[in-house]
Amino acid sequence: MTTDTSPPAHGAPTNPAPGAPKRRGLGRRLPKGFKFGVAKTKRPSLRLHVLDGLSECPSCGFFQQVPRLQPGQVADCKRCHGQIGRRRTNPPVSTPLAFCLASAVLYFVAITHSLLTFDLYGRTRTVSLLTGPGELWREGWGPVGVLVLLATVVIPPIVIGLMLAILTAASRPKLPRWAPGLMRRYERLRPWSMIEVYMLGVFVAYTKLIDLAHIEVGVAVYALAGLMLTMAATDSTLDVERVWHKRPVARFARRADGTRVIISTVDASEMVLPPARRIVSCTSCGLVCAADYDIPQERVLGNCPRCQAKVRRRKPQGVLRCMLLTGSAVILYIPANLYPVMTIIQVGRGGGHTILAGVRELYEAHMLPLALLVFFASITVPVLKIVGLTMMAWCTWRGSATRLIDRGRLFRIIDAIGRWSMIDVFMISILVAIVHLGRLANISAEPGVFAFASVVVLTIFAADCFDPRLMWDAAGMNGVLLAKNATGPKTTQGGGRQSVLPSATESVGA
Ligand SMILES: [Zn+2]
Ligand SMILES: [Zn+2]
């Protein structure tokens, strides 16, 4: 029998000698699943600091301290004057919830009742919200029909349902884990619910038809008008920041490579801010985090510790994707204007109508305001979007620093008005659905409508791909600037502009 007297391997526990007194209180119980052997070198834990009180301007990428806003106050970016924050005066949940419930009822009325009734020499035809997309599909313009169906029938109830779920979640003291995902989906889908644009399409179609035949306005039109107002009221009374504040920040998070990260919250006003290349903000909930290392510009860092959205400093390939989509829109814009968008046959006579011809027709019928509206929505807006996005992408590519504030403002306008070009597409879907009386009177869609709808969709996606902060990055304005004595954002209340910040606060460029 031999006794092993060699020293134990490093890290391996030693067995006490027989008869030796038991050690009390010094040893720790081994964790479950512990394997004896050589101890592995422990990797240092990565840390991410949530900078409380710091916000990034979504327009220019300027990080600045924003004080807790009082009801009715608005915080504007100090550098580009874009809006950073806003506090509503109404109760945060009950008011938008009331509007949202009203939206649900009005949508149900709109989808179950008739939109318009067309009466020509005793031959009548009644249409609903579903008739237009169905007729476009039947005529072989399936993608346009699907687009109209999504924007007017499918997405609005989804958006209303999401908002009802979000507000129900927000009525709890703590926002549940599933709510942030719904919030992100709501923000992505909301621009594609186009009830207000559809209403204008109905109005233009009605004025075009009123000289041709007797038109009876259905209950659905009044319901849609109400729905347009209640959906807008839901958005304007929803205090997104107060909803996000109900969601606690997790103590741990995972990076994209799977590494565990420890989260700690620090007050941004009580620390020296790290270099901007180490700060990132969540575009979904606005949480600002600082790392101990440089954060890649376009790669996903990981999930946000508050809302679980993927966090990256900038949208990937923003300029390239914007240029490609805008270029495709330019190519399609030519057939969209050259080819007729619809053919109108009245008592066996008629022919194709281009977009411009439709505007001229309204002008010749002495409907100048309507002609101007259609001209603005169908000609000015697409041109403005194409020229504006091309110019912004080109300037960013070149690294230009001229008129950055104006360019930022133009981007916000383009982003907001892009959907209004759909007026013509909606109007055609209504006319195609309602004027369907053979050789007596018939309106059918033509290739121009497909090209035009594609231009609208492509430019919406192009604006969505473009990250306006890239303009400031390219101009060298978002480097590692540490403006120690820069003043905070401007805040406004009740129309007057007043600063509620101390004169010297720390701000940092992204
Ligand atoms: Zn800004
Ligand atoms: Zn987030």
From TrEMBL:
Superkingdom to which the source organism belongs: Bacteria
Pfam families assigned to the protein according to its UniProt record, in alphabetical order: PqiA (PF04403)
Disordered: annotated span: 1-29, 489-510
Keyword annotations: Cell inner membrane, Cell membrane, Membrane, Transmembrane, Transmembrane helix
Main location: membrane
Cellular localisation: Cell inner membrane
GO CC terms, sorted: plasma membrane
Biased amino acid composition, Polar residues: 500-510
Transmembrane segments: 96-121, 141-168, 189-207, 219-238, 318-336, 370-395, 416-437, 449-466
PANTHER family: INTERMEMBRANE TRANSPORT PROTEIN PQIA, INTERMEMBRANE TRANSPORT PROTEIN PQIB-RELATED
Protein name: Paraquat-inducible membrane protein A
Organism: Lichenicola cladoniae
